[in-house]
Write a structure and sequence with these properties.
Length: 191
């Protein structure tokens, strides 16, 4: 073995030590970088998904409605409430027809049955006259094709048994659906 051979062996030993050291530190370093990068990518994807869901589920619906739509829903709820709760025995058919023009769906069917079976006989027999006045109304929920309006109502009722007006104040949640660009009542729930 010559001096050159000893130098080559020493260089080879140093290279082997450096390679062994690189395997120990570099082998664990590279997967950690990929793991951290993968976690960051997943977090970004989740944040993007959440932002997209919020846009389509919350923000976008709000932007598809405006003050005119809200006022239109309030006006329709106000007019429909007055029509539903106001009638005279002399004009029952016209009053009920006017009320029905503000209704749709199952509530229209219910109203037809209710007025025929209960209101008409009582109104004719006892000469019941009732007049409704909307005191206040405001939108509770508003979507492009549906709305819920809270309506505060004063109602005056007279009959042949009680000619003095009986006053009643109430509040109603009026659920509405837009049909052919017109707000119609689908539910009428006293609160």
């Amino acid at each position: 073995m010559t001096a050159d051979d000893n130098a080559k062996n020493a260089d080879a030993d140093q290279v082997t030590e450096v390679a062994a050291t690189a395997d120990k530190s570099g082998g664990t370093f590279v997967p950690r970088v990929w793991l951290v990068a993968g976690v960051l990518v997943l977090l970004l994807l989740n944040a993007g998904g959440l932002a997209g869901w919020l846009y389509f589920a919350q923000y976008r619906d709000d932007k598809q409605t405006d003050k005119n739509a809200a006022q239109s829903a309030v006006n329709a709820a106000r007019d429909g409430t007055i029509a539903l709760l106001s009638y005279k025995p002399e004009t029952l058919d016209q009053d009920f027809a006017a009320a029905k023009s503000h209704l749709t769906g199952d509530f229209l069917n219910y109203y037809n049955e209710f007025t025929q079976q209960i209101v008409t006989p009582a109104a004719k027999e006892k000469s019941v006259t009732t007049t409704a006045q909307v005191v206040r109304a405001a939108v509770s929920e508003l979507h492009p094709d549906s709305a819920v309006v809270l309506v505060f109502v004063n109602q005056s009722t007279t009959s042949k048994d009680r000619p003095e007006p009986a006053m009643a104040a109430s509040s109603v949640l009026v659920s509405m659906t837009k049909v052919d660009d017109k707000w119609l009542i689908t539910k009428f729930d006293p609160v």
